[in-house]
Design goal:
5-stranded mixed sheet, Rossmann fold, alpha+beta, 410 residues, BirA Bifunctional Protein, domain 2, 41% helix, binds histidyl-adenosine monophosphate
């Protein structure tokens, strides 16, 4: 038996219905904040992601050469693609630009629960606003979108400036190496990397930075960074709006393009792969031939949110099964059309089994059977059977639709 590729999943209808419902809630939350949906290609020129995404992601990409000899890749994330699109199509739009997306991404990672090779992100990008209000809006929206899904999570908010201030003596490569260890929260690797760079003395202040939970302490450890006022303003806005978050200046982020505020969220009931959102302020457009515009955004690991909220009951609405004898088939199709016109999910028998077998099948899949035989054809009626109670009545089609509608309202 042929299997699906490792790290991918198939979704049956119940699962898809749940996913679409949650996706709609997220899109609706974003819409209320003025974020409109965009779509970019599943594959891009490799270069788009090698410029600034960071070593981790570059190692994990699904890269291929197309028939024209171009180096292409399946997108490992969407931010770079959206900023490429901004440079190509969006520069003339009034700023700030508020965009959102639902997109599948591809990373060649070791699969486990909550970590896949094809996974979906719900994300937003706010382009062209460089203020504490912009940083705060992105965090507040993240909070609202996550809440709309019903997931329970902890939100950690930080800023790269204090960490970078501590690492200021290191070369850019050295900084990247240290920040990669901090992002993985791998203390052993961090100490080894610091020793190798002859900066072992930074181990304690970096640990203190990750550990402290008030912003006053941050500046005691890292010194007065120029971004202090911006950080204080952002946090004050979040506090004033009652956002539940934890200051966390140990956040380093795995992608290389972040420049300021950074944040991550963790689902309370997931294991190792519990990070359900990541985001922050960044600059990318200038690398793709555009202006050096300030941007800020986030992406939610949609699949992890679905694992965290688990299965929930679906309301599929009232379902009608139309069963008929061969001579009543045309009337059955008319009746089905009328029920569909009234908005009901309506399934007509296709197997040409006997009436008993058709009704038995409808009892497994529908709430009502609409039965049409010779008698109903002659009388211009249908027999409507409530498959839950077994009650049935021979009535005209409009009355049958009205009765099914009353059941749906209950
Ligand atoms: P990221 O942290 O790389 O950020 O990914 C965002 C989220 O995608 C993660 O927090 C995680 O929930 C989910 N995720 C990542 N890899 C996998 C995987 N293999 N399987 C399942 N879920 C996964 C970004 O992608 C940035 N583009 C976010 C951003 C938008 N920053 C600014 N704007």
């Amino acid at each position: 038996m042929l299997q699906r590729p490792r790290g991918t999943r198939d979704f049956l209808p119940d699962e898809m219905e749940r996913r679409r419902l949650i996706e709609q809630r997220m899109l609706e939350a974003a819409r209320r904040w003025g974020y409109r949906e965009v779509c970019t290609p599943d594959f891009e020129h490799l270069e788009l992601f090698t410029m600034k995404s960071g070593e981790g992601i570059i190692q994990e990409m699904y890269t291929f050469e197309d028939k024209g000899g171009r180096q292409m890749t399946l997108r490992p994330e969407v931010t770079a693609a959206v900023l490429r699109m901004y440079v190509n199509e969006g520069k003339v739009l009034p700023k700030p630009i508020r965009w959102c997306y639902v997109a599948d991404c591809f990373r060649y990672e070791r699969p486990q629960k909550g970590r896949y090779r094809q996974f979906w992100q719900f994300g937003i990008e706010l382009i062209g606003a460089d203020t504490a209000s912009a940083d705060a809006e992105v965090i507040m929206l993240a909070d609202e979108v996550l809440n709309s899904s019903g997931v329970t999570f902890d939100l950690h908010v930080g800023h790269l400036a204090p960490m970078k201030h501590l690492l200021t003596d290191l070369s850019p490569e050295g900084q990247r190496a240290i920040m990669a260890c901090l992002d993985k929260r791998d203390q052993g690797a961090l100490e080894a990397a610091l020793d190798e760079l002859d900066h072992g003395h930074l181990s304690d202040p970096l640990a203190a930075l990750s550990g402290c939970r008030t912003i006053e302490e941050i500046f005691e450890i890292a010194g007065d960074v120029p971004e202090r006022a911006r950080i204080e303003d952002t946090f004050a806005l979040l506090d004033a709006q009652g956002i539940d978050y934890l200051p966390d200046f140990g956040i380093a982020r795995g992608l290389d393009y972040y420049t300021g505020m950074v944040f991550e969220g963790f689902a309370q009931n997931l294991g190792a792969e519990n990070q359900i959102i990541g985001g922050g302020a960044y600059r990318l457009a200038h690398l793709f031939g555009g202006d050096d515009v300030a941007s800020c955004g986030f992406a939610i690991g949609f699949d992890r949110v679905m694992v965290s909220i688990g299965d929930f009951p679906l309301d599929s609405g009232t379902i009608v099964g139309v069963v008929c004898t061969p001579e009543a088939r045309e009337r059955a199709l008319e009746a089905a059309r009328a029920f569909r016109g009234a908005g009901f999910r309506t399934e007509v028998d296709l197997m040409q089994r006997g009436m008993g077998a058709q009704i038995a099948h409808a009892a497994k899949t529908a709430d009502f059977a609409v039965v049409l035989g010779r008698r109903e054809v002659d009388a211009g009626t249908v027999t409507l059977r409530n498959l839950e109670t077994g009650e049935q009545r021979e009535i005209n089609l409009d009355d049958a639709i009205a009765e099914v509608a009353r059941h749906g309202d209950r």
